[in-house]
Each structure stands twice: as C-alpha cells, then as structure tokens.
C-alpha cells in the first residue's frame, strides 16, 4: 500500500510499504477514506525527530471502512464505517473505567514510561504505524473505533478522532464558572474548535489569541474577541481590560512546544533540530530547551485562583517554569492528551443532527495522499491559508 512516511526533519514521503495484517485477535484492518493532518504532526516534522525512525508511518486522525476483523474484535463488522480515536485503549481496565483512556493499562508504553499507545506518534507512544496510509491496523478494535452512519460526507465525522474530543476536553478542563471568561491561546484547529465548543456551551466571554491574521479573523467570525499577539500592545493588560480588570477565569493553551515569541528558546530549539539524534534526544529529554512562550503567557494571563487547561503538546523535562507565579496565583492546572472515547457520547449528537459546530466546513484543504509531502510543507509555512488539511488516500 501507499503510506506517508517520515525520513528526517521536514522530510516526509509517500512510500510503497507492506499492507498491514491482523496480528492479534483483537485487531481490525480498515481502508482509510479520510485522514487528518494535525498540528501534532508538525511537531514530528520539525522537532521530535529523535523519537522517530526513517520509514515510520505518520498520522492519527483516520476514518474509513472495516475490511477485516480479528476473532475478538467485539461488535465490529466488515463494511462498518468508523472513525478511529488517536489513542489506543481497551475500554475495560482501571484507567479506561475512569475515563482516562490516555492512561490505558493495556496499551501503556512501559519501556518509555509513557501512557497509552498512539497511532503514528513516535517510539515514546509505541511506534504504532499511523493512519496517513491506504490501510490501517487497529489494535483493541473492539473498543476504539466509533461507528458512524452512512450518508453524510467524511468531514462530518472525521474530527471525532482528535480535534473535537481534544477541544471538548480542553474546555471541560478549563472549568469556566457560570458567567465567566475564557482565553483560548492559539487559534489553530484545536483552538478554533475549542472556541466553537465554548460558545456552544454558553460561555459568553471567549477571547482568542494568535498571531496569524487569517486565524484571528476565523475566530472573530464566530463571535470571539480576537486579539493579535504580534500587534505590539501589552496583551496581558488588554485582556485584563476585557475581563473586569482581573484576567480571565480560565485559559486554554492550544499552542504547544513550537510557540512563537521566545527568541532565546528558538535558537536552542533549532540547534536541537539540527543535532544528530544521539545528541538531540538527551537534550530534548533533559536540557530544557523547549519553547515555553505560550505556556508562560497563559500563566501570566489567567486571573489569580483561575484554571489553566493545557491541550498543546510539550516535550522535555527541566524546562524552567514560573513556579513562583504559579504557586502565588493559586492556579489549578489540568492537561494531557485527549481521552477521546470518554467524550464520544457528548459529541456524537453534535455531528449526527444539525451540524451545530460547522464541522463540514472546518477543513480548508482536501488533497490526495500522493500530495501529502507538499501539504505538510504548506501546512507548516502558510498558516493563513492552510488551516486544516484532510488527506484522501
Ligand atoms: N492534547 C491533545 O490530545 C492534543 C490533540 C491534538 C493536538 N494537540 C496539540 O495542540 C496544539 C495545537 O494543535 P493545532 O492542530 O491547533 O496546531 P497548529 O500548529 O495548527 O496551531 C497552533 C497555533 O498557535 C499559534 N501560536 C504560536 N505561538 C503562539 C503564541 N505564543 N501565542 C498564541 N498563539 C500562538 C500559531 O500561529 C497557530 O495558529 C499542538 O501542540 C498539538 O500538538 C494536542
Ligand atoms: Zn491530531
Ligand atoms: Zn484500558
């Protein structure tokens, strides 16, 4: 089959690889019909190379048609139309029972000390072949895949794999009090969907911050107060003015470790990107060279006693954190990968009836798998136009 594979920093290719096979009785194989490109994939493209091997298949936002099922793949049947959550979980362990599917005890990656395995996301998460491919093997297939009805286009359901549950969990964890305010930092697909969900859930004062004009405009069109970080004014003061002088009750950080705005961090970051893997990995693990600009801004913005909800992905160990400020402000912080299946019951009604979140118009680009390398490049460089990409294998 054809699959999008990683070969090095900013080097992904469409290669001919072996078709996946059923390996465990709990597996299934799907033929992928649509598969998203995510901001998380850009971290692999730019900085997480030390955790990848040439030939690794990327992608974790797939949907498609079941082609083959193992003997213990539960209710799943050949021909079912399914969306596949990006994390692989069993649905019946201690963690899954609590809605912590990201910590599933059946799929935790013990060698790396990581949580549940993820599709297409480095050795840290089990080096499981990803979904930007013609076919995909799905472990724990009796639980993960979400059956969706025939009829509507793929885009109606595709974002149940990652964007919607991630944004939903981000808003849930932000815990905005009645009548309260929320800042969404970063207006990529995750931040943008979080704005839609926040408004849908009745949060009136939603402020979105980014530095890409097109993305800020998108948020404004929803009814969000959009602010431009690059405008040069004092963003913290500006947000305070909009939130009764105190700062927002909650901040949802949807940027992650490649934030703009930390020049010193940037140089270190680029150095890590250019080092041979053997040197770069320990640096990523321990030297604290990540770019924490967005996280620091989030901590500065949130009001005293407020809640910080972190959806953006961070790597590295000893990043200098403003611990004094965090402690002094009595912040509540919640974070982590989305527990995708935990939120399916909340989200399905939003995509099966009226398209209340506008998911059918969410993606800006649909491209054939063969053009994926070009799409990666554009998605990274042209953030104005290339907002959300869906690949069609
Ligand atoms: N927790 C999860 O389960 C989960 C799931 C999916 C994605 N993610 C992570 O969420 C983050 C966002 O994902 P995405 O697909 O929207 O990515 P994206 O790269 O498309 O969006 C990030 C946005 O942040 C903006 N930005 C950069 N620096 C900023 C700053 N200092 N302040 C404000 N905005 C800034 C960028 O201009 C961009 O619009 C990524 O880190 C991604 O890895 C997490
Ligand atoms: Zn994703
Ligand atoms: Zn489990």
Describe the structure.
The longest helix is centred in the middle third of the chain and has 12 residues, at 163-174. α8 (263-274) packs antiparallel against α9. The termini are close together. The protein is globular, with a radius of gyration of 20 Å. α11 (323-328) links the parallel β14 (307-310) and β15 (332-335). The chain has 393 residues and is α/β, with parallel strands linked by helices. The strands form four sheets. Strands 3, 4, 5, 8, 9, 16 and 17 form a seven-stranded mixed sheet that branches. A six-stranded parallel sheet has the order 12-11-10-13-14-15, sandwiched between helices. Helices cover 29% and strands 20% of the residues. One zinc ion binds at residues 38, 40, 60-61, 86, 162.
- CATH superfamily of the largest domain, please? Medium-chain alcohol dehydrogenases, catalytic domain
Instruction: Report the average pLDDT across residues.
Output: 91
**CATH class wording of the largest domain:** Alpha Beta
- What is the N-to-C succession of helices and strands? EEEHEEHEEEEHHEHEHEHEHHHEHEHEHE
Strand content: 15-25%
Distance between the termini: 10 Å
Care to count the β-strands? 17
Overall tally of structural domains: 2
The description of the largest β-sheet is:
7 strands, mixed
Can you tag this structure with a few keywords?
Quinone Oxidoreductase, Chain A, domain 1; binds nicotinamide-adenine-dinucleotide; 393 residues; binds zinc ion; 17 strands; globular; alpha/beta; 2 domains; 7-stranded mixed beta sheet; single chain
